[in-house]
């Protein structure tokens, strides 16, 4: 029982108490009931999601400004990070709507409900697609370094990123066609936010948005890991024998290996945060877990979007330098976009 409901008992009759637990008390026969959670769980969820949301929006906005503003950062790999930051930025805003659903009541109407659900699926799908592109980028950089500059160009990366987002829009427009045409058609009461996808479409979504991409990511990064280990051993032996002659190539290889390790951390964190939610949906157990577990899975799912910029801050000196220039407003100075960041 919530503290609000408990206080109502001091002043209201039992009938009024029943009304207080409705999403829309004025609609006695058609309103949904609020989800009864322990008060401590509700407060904790509000605090966690609000904090994560604010941090996610702020940190990813710093990434977007950094890569967009400084010309030296306009590399193929960073363009992929920019796409990931854009999706994570919007995830931060979506969390505000998730906060509204803590008590089980949706108060913004059927159209906003389907728009929220559609954007949530779209952004998640685009994030996973971007992760696949990052894995491909690192695979080519490590496993075929001589042809990397020719194979992975800025224009090709831009095209791939655009296709990733377009495919996500097309896929989820198709999967949610019925919901988009008639928002709220599957709601059983006022205050509910429900979408329904048929069994075949649901399986297609699971394979195209989760199982397939995750399999590709794991396979590519296993290959990258094996090649990275062999490169590291080769560099140690080459450095000992030809320190001066191979110093440039060794430095380049170390840079690529560092980027591979950093993005590998990003991908591992991504999988750890998203897998619980997808696995629950895949097994159909998402409606059977208790409130505390559901809160943990939800917070973990969204927390990934907040963690990515934190990882960049730890591993990328250029990002730390960008933050200092942005916070001190030095990016407003003429010619700041030409600043040496590397």
3D structure, described in words:
The structure is a single chain. The chain has 12 helices and no strands. With about 350 residues, the chain is mainly alpha-helical. It has 2 domains: about 30 residues, no CATH class; about 300 residues, Rhodopsin 7-helix transmembrane proteins (Rhopdopsin 7-helix transmembrane proteins), CATH 1.20.1070.10. The protein is globular and about 75 Å long. About 25% of the residues are buried. The N terminus is likely disordered.
Name the overall outline: globular
- Structurally, the number of domains stands at 2
Q: How many H/I helical runs?
A: 12
CATH topology of the largest domain: Rhopdopsin 7-helix transmembrane proteins
**Structural class estimated from helices and strands:** mainly alpha
Mean pLDDT: 78
H/E series, N to C? HHHHHHHHHHHH
CATH superfamily of the largest domain: Rhodopsin 7-helix transmembrane proteins
Note the beta-strand portion.
under 5%
Task: Quickly name the level 1 CATH class of the largest domain.
Answer: Mainly Alpha
Unreliably modeled segments:
1-20, 242-249
Short description:
With 342 residues, this protein is mainly alpha-helical. It has helices at residues 3-8, 14-20, 39-69, 76-100, 109-143, 148-151, 154-175, 177-181, 199-241, 247-283, 291-315, 317-327. It is globular and about 75 Å long.
What key phrases describe this protein's structure?
342 residues, mainly alpha, Rhopdopsin 7-helix transmembrane proteins, 2 domains, 12 helices, 73% helix, globular
């Amino acid at each position: 029982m919530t503290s609000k409901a408990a206080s109502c008992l001091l002043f209201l009759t039992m009938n009024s108490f029943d009304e207080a637990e409705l999403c829309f008390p004025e609609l006695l026969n058609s309103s949904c009931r609020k989800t009864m959670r322990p008060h401590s769980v509700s407060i904790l969820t509000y605090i966690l999601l609000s904090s994560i949301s604010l941090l996610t929006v702020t940190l990813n906005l710093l990434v977007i400004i950094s890569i967009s503003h400084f010309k030296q950062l306009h590399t193929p790999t960073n363009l992929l990070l920019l796409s990931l930051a854009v999706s994570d930025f919007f995830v931060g805003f979506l969390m505000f709507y998730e906060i509204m659903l803590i008590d089980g009541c949706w108060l913004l109407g059927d159209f906003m409900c389907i728009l929220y659900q559609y954007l949530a699926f779209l952004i998640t799908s685009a994030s996973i697609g971007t992760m696949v592109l990052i894995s491909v980028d690192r695979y080519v950089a490590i496993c075929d370094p001589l042809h990397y500059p020719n194979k992975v160009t800025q224009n090709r990366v831009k095209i791939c990123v655009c296709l990733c987002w377009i495919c996500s829009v097309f896929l989820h427009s198709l999967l949610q066609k019925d919901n988009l045409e008639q928002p709220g058609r599957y709601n059983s009461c006022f205050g509910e936010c429900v979408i329904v996808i048929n069994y075949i479409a649901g399986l297609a979504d699971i394979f195209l948005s989760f199982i397939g991409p995750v399999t590709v990511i794991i396979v590519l990064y296993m290959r990258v890991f094996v090649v990275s280990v062999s490169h590291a051993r080769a560099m140690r032996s080459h450095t000992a024998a030809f320190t001066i002659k191979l110093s440039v190539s060794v430095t380049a290889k170390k840079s690529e290996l560092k980027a591979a390790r950093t993005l590998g951390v990003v991908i591992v964190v991504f999988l750890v945060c998203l897998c619980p939610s997808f696995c629950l949906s895949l097994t159909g157990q998402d409606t059977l877990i208790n409130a505390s577990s559901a809160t943990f899975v939800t917070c973990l799912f969204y927390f990934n979007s907040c963690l990515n910029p934190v990882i960049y801050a730890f591993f990328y000196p250029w990002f730390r330098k960008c933050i200092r220039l942005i916070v001190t407003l030095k990016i407003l100075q003429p010619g700041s976009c030409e600043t040496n960041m590397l």
